[in-house]
Specification:
By secondary structure, the protein is an alpha+beta fold. The protein is built from 4 helices and 15 strands. The strands form 6 sheets. Strands 2-1-3-4 form a 4-stranded antiparallel sheet. β5 and β6 form a beta hairpin. Keywords: Metal-binding, Zinc, Zinc-finger.
């Protein structure tokens, strides 16, 4: 869920760190060599009458409203977006509040349809996005929850999908239902038999989706997990069985791929 940020302003924050006036903490942080702690903000200046005053929703002098929504903890002013302050997250979230719940273990607010329907990862929102390595918890960019429970910025997830990547950058678990793709690989393997000298070859694999360790037939197009049927697997060691091993010349994976293609 994104953090809130005001673009149209009727006030200026007085930074508690340097005393300078800024539209928001992001503008301050981009200009200064230090960061503003918004929770320590005590005063704002009205842009209409220039009165410096205690942070509050309405100007005490000219009564202009600084924001339809105001949080006295975050000192956040914004248009009404059904915001609410989550005490456990420590920041304001875009609501409405009844559509979200705070997962204590993950330590973030999630949509109600994920209640009891997501994999918990302790304090996951306090980790940086594994794609851009930037903060997720206080980011204005929404977060995408992967099936494995890890979080990415929504924009980073979209960029990853566009490149054809389908694994979580942290644990390598598939990031969506891949059954149709696995079925397609099944068909391609059925149409691309391995060269005779390799048809008895097997290999040990670990499945990135179910973590099973198993021994399966070797094929250059993919090794299928015998536990869950996923091709999101990694080979552990070399070939462990070759029926015609004494006749096998030195061969690269590229050579095997070419041989399979020639047979199609």
């Amino acid at each position: 869920m994104p953090e809130l940020h005001l673009t149209t302003c009727f006030y200026l924050w007085q930074a508690p760190c340097c005393g300078k006036l800024y539209v928001c903490r992001l503008c301050h942080d981009a200009e200064e060599n230090h960061q503003m702690d918004r929770f320590k903000v005590r005063e704002v200046q009205c842009c209409e009458c220039q009165t410096v005053q205690q942070a509050q929703q309405t100007c005490q002098q000219c009564h202009v409203q600084f924001g339809e929504y105001y949080c006295d903890i975050c000192h956040l002013f914004d248009k009404d977006k059904k915001q609410y302050h989550c005490q456990d997250c420590g920041i304001c979230r875009i609501g409405p509040k009844e559509k979200y719940f705070h997962c204590v273990k993950c330590n973030l607010c999630l949509a109600q349809d994920l209640r009891g329907n997501h994999k918990c990862v302790e304090n996951v929102s306090r980790q940086n996005c594994p794609v851009c390595m930037e903060d997720i918890h206080t980011s204005r960019i929404g977060a995408h929850v992967l099936p494995c429970g890890h979080l990415l910025h929504k924009t980073c997830f979209d960029d990853m999908v566009r490149t054809g990547a389908y694994r979580c950058p942290l644990c390598m678990h598939s990031v969506w239902n891949m059954e149709d793709h696995w079925d397609q690989i099944d068909k391609e393997i059925a149409q691309s038999p391995m060269p005779t000298e390799y048809q008895g070859a097997t290999v040990k694999i670990i499945c990135n989706d179910c973590q099973a360790h198993c021994t399966v037939p070797f094929h250059v197009l993919g090794m299928k997990c015998s536990g869950c049927g996923s091709y999101n697997t990694a080979q552990e060691g070399g070939l462990i069985q070759q029926i015609h091993s004494h006749n096998v010349p030195p061969t690269t994976i590229s050579d095997l791929s070419n041989k399979c293609l020639e047979r199609k």
